[in-house]
Design a protein that fits this description.
Length: 568
């Protein structure tokens, strides 16, 4: 054991990776629906490993934290700036007001309890589940005119308070928004009914036709049928059949035909008249095909007929002729013939594919179809986001450097030199560069796996170093704050959420589904969004999540600077 202890002290990088491995393992353990999550798991393991008195360079922490903040800004940038437009302003204003409450409540509670700056920052970080506050607050504390020992004491207090308050901050938020908030809106049955009513106005109709309810299946499918004399296709041209199906809101396309006469396989033309004995391939969303298969004919398994290449392409919505269109309007365009919309993602969040769902700049929509049809559709909609494993590191490196330089500039507040810090600058520049990417997607690509590494590994490596550094003083700090902090954390978590629901209902008068989604978004709690959608049996709350999430993710991190100013 002495050898192991000595080795970790000599090679602290090994201690960091041990902390990450053990922390991710602990964070993945689930008790019912609850788990600590990777961040808390890594922090607790860092504290444990830190008992060996391991010294890790602060530069390691800074590098990974800058990478994390840039990735956060990059991911939410398009929605952040889109929210500043007229139609998004109510949600932006709501998110700003709620974030202010998320700052004021922990601040007043900290003053009431006599907490120091570090404890107050840890309370905000844990109760609002925004780990990055600790990094930004630590940078700001280092600029305050205090002795090095005082600064370190405050910085070491942050992970203690974070760990104590984070558990209710996560689990409590999900419970409050999925169980308590619906009662404030008239009861869960009333909220579910309101969601179903809104779904109908968006063209969803029967819940069984909600694509979000069929996520276990391949949403776009290709099926082959033998046409009989009784089939609705017999005697109709390809165009007539497609028009008839479209008239019943079943958007299906004839993709291939095996002629009964000579058994040759052909690509359909609009004028071709389908005959009894022909075999055809229909493509479209699964729920549409399931509604028509009895009318078309007997389904067959014909490998040769079904063995043809199709493309599955993610497309950036950037062209004006697509922006602002509903899915229903998009489907009527000539260039969308043969191209079903499989999914929509906005700021990384899956959106419901309802006919009245509106496309926004920067949305990623997944299309399926023949290459010849795909090329035409992509040209009208935007830019094909071709999968690649390469990250534009020129874009990433330049963004972090520019953001850091801007953040390093300081101003004096009450004689104290303060700045956004390099971390705050990296976040702001991430927002700008993410927005630029949505406008000009030909450059600045960061593949999702790389973005995941920057986001998760970046944050958790920072947290690992925080935990290891604070390890020796963690126990003493816990004794100082005591279990009373857990109760304070419950109040700090609950007050903003309750106030947010009341503001959304009585001041902004949002739809109940949007109230829940906006409140979860402003508090950046994805776990709560999942719980809400399960409880209300609808994925409509996600419509209120993206803009408020972008605003909340930005402001809550910046509160790391503000809480230090308020407490000093």
């Amino acid at each position: 054991m002495n050898w192991l202890h000595h080795t970790f002290q000599e090679y602290p990088e090994l201690a960091v990776f041990l902390t990450l491995a053990a922390g991710y393992f602990i964070g993945s353990i689930r008790i019912g629906k609850f788990s600590l999550g990777s961040v808390t798991g890594v922090l607790l393991m860092g504290v444990l490993v830190g008992q060996m008195d391991i010294q890790v360079s602060a530069n390691v922490k800074s590098v990974f934290f800058l990478m994390f903040l840039f990735a956060v800004g990059y991911a939410v940038g398009p929605q952040f700036f889109r929210g500043l437009k007229k139609d998004g302003l109510p949600q932006v204003l709501f998110a700003v007001l709620m974030c202010v409450v998320c700052l004021i409540a922990p601040w007043l509670l900290s003053i009431l309890m006599g907490y120091n700056v570090g404890q107050a920052a840890g309370l905000i970080a844990g109760s609002q589940t925004i780990s990055a506050v600790m990094g930004v607050a630590a940078d700001t504390i280092n600029q305050v005119n205090l002795s090095p020992d005082q600064k370190q004491l405050m910085i070491n207090a942050m992970p203690v308070c974070y760990a104590v308050t984070y558990i209710f901050g996560t689990a409590g938020s999900a419970w409050l928004l999925s169980s308590v908030a619906p009662m404030m809106l008239g009861g869960i049955d009333k909220v579910r009914a309101a969601c179903k009513e809104l779904e109908k106005t968006m063209g969803a109709g029967d819940p069984s036709q909600d694509p979000g309810m069929r996520s276990a299946f391949i949403s776009v499918t290709f099926r082959a049928y033998l046409i009989s004399e009784k089939s609705i296709a017999a005697g109709k041209s390809v165009k007539q059949l497609e028009d008839e199906l479209m008239g019943r809101e079943h958007r299906l396309f004839v993709e291939r035909i095996r002629q009964a006469a000579d058994k040759k396989i052909m690509d359909p033309t609009p004028e071709y008249v389908i005959k009894a004995g022909d075999e055809i391939v229909l493509s479209g969303r699964r729920e549409f095909i399931l509604g028509e298969e009895e009318n078309i004919g007997k389904e067959i398994i014909d490998v040769d007929l079904l063995n043809f290449p199709v493309e599955n392409v993610m497309v950036f919505v950037i062209n004006k002729e697509a922006i602002g269109k509903t899915i229903r309007e998009l489907r009527t365009m000539d260039y969308m013939h043969g191209i079903p919309v499989q999914s929509i993602r906005r700021a990384g969040i899956a959106m419901p594919v309802y006919p009245e769902a509106v496309l926004e700049r920067g949305d990623n929509i997944q299309l399926v179809g023949y290459k010849r049809d795909m090329d035409r559709a992509v040209a009208h909609i935007g830019y094909a986001d071709i999968p690649t494993d390469k990250t534009d590191m020129i874009f990433v490196g330049l963004g972090i450097v520019l953001g850091g330089l801007i953040g390093a500039m300081s101003i004096r507040v009450g004689g104290v030199p303060l700045s956004l810090s390099t971390s705050g600058g990296a976040l702001i520049m991430g927002l700008v560069f993410g927005w630029l990417r949505s406008r000009h997607p030909a450059f600045g690509r960061i593949p999702e796996p790389a973005l995941w590494v920057m986001n998760n590994v970046g944050l958790n490596t920072f947290i690992a170093v925080v935990g290891i550094t604070a390890g020796p003083s963690f126990v003493a700090g816990f004794k100082e704050v005591g279990w009373g902090l857990f109760l304070v954390g419950i109040a700090a978590t609950s007050i903003p959420l309750i106030v947010g629901v009341l503001m959304a209902k009585y001041i902004f008068k949002f739809h109940p589904a949007l109230i829940l989604g906006c409140t979860a978004g402003a508090r950046t709690t994805t776990a709560a969004l999942s719980a809400i959608q399960d409880e209300v049996q609808s994925n409509l709350p996600s419509l209120g999540y993206t803009i408020t999430y972008a605003v909340g993710n930005t402001l809550l991190i910046i509160w790391g600077v503000v809480i230090v100013i308020l407490m000093t």
